[in-house]
């Protein structure tokens, strides 16, 4: 069975003091948990501080982005070796906000993916369609292109290290959530694409997370679906109590 993963994406929120208080709070709340896996992805400025604060707890720390070179004259960028040395274990790649505001493409997702694997980080590769694309019936076409282009050149051994996050853009921060049935349909489609690319065994091993206004009142129904292996949580991860409720989902 795939071990569920509940990951929090803080985006550009919290001061260092606020982040430290959150870490103290969540560490106490989830000290007894061995399953699911728990991850928080703060702004990279806080990765080291949170990794130190959460040492010995079930909560691991990741980054929201990574550059595709390991070092060099790239002002403002952060590399996989830097993140790993600061205590990061995972990295989010290709989030829709990176695509929307910062020019991320499937090709740059692919370059970041190889950098993450090279640096020993677990990549969480984000895919998802806009509302216009969904209403035009293009969801599967968009997802297929993002998966095939974003994962181009990855061999089955490397693919087994991946996490995929399906985030319908129309559900991110809007309060709208794909129904569990809608989400499951897309997750099953993604699983089928992974099977085509990497074979049944690897496809069955890759975790596919759902992201998009995940909260305590919808997590149980989402996690009841066969191909939903966890959640990439935005706003609800900023509060330790609400994040704990999601971590303690019922089922699986």
**CATH overall fold name:** TIM Barrel
State the order of secondary-structure elements, H for helix, E for strand: EHEHEHEHHEHHHEHHEHEH
What is the number of strand segments?
A: 8
- What percent strand? 15-25%
Instruction: Assign an overall shape.
Output: globular
Number of domains: 1
Number of helices: 12
Low-confidence regions: none
Using only CA atoms, what is the Rg? Answer: 17 Å
Tell me what you see in this structure:
With 252 residues, the chain is α/β, with parallel strands linked by helices. It has one domain: Aldolase class I (TIM Barrel, Alpha-Beta Barrel). It is 42% helix and 15% strand. It has twelve helices and eight strands. An eight-stranded parallel β-barrel has the order 1-2-3-4-5-6-7-8, surrounded by five helices. Helix 1 packs parallel to helix 12 (240-247) and helix 7 (139-150) runs parallel beside helix 9. The radius of gyration is 17 Å and the shape is globular.
Q: Notable features of this structure?
A:
alpha/beta, 252 residues, globular
Short recap of the structure:
The protein is built from 12 helices and 8 strands.
List strands and helices in order, with pairings.
Blueprint: E1 5-9, H1 16-29, E2 37-41, H2 47-53, E3 59-63, H3 80-86, E4 90-93, H4 96-102, H5 106-118, E5 122-127, H6 131-135, H7 139-150, H8 156-159, E6 163-166, H9 180-198, H10 200-205, E7 207-211, H11 219-223, E8 230-233, H12 240-247
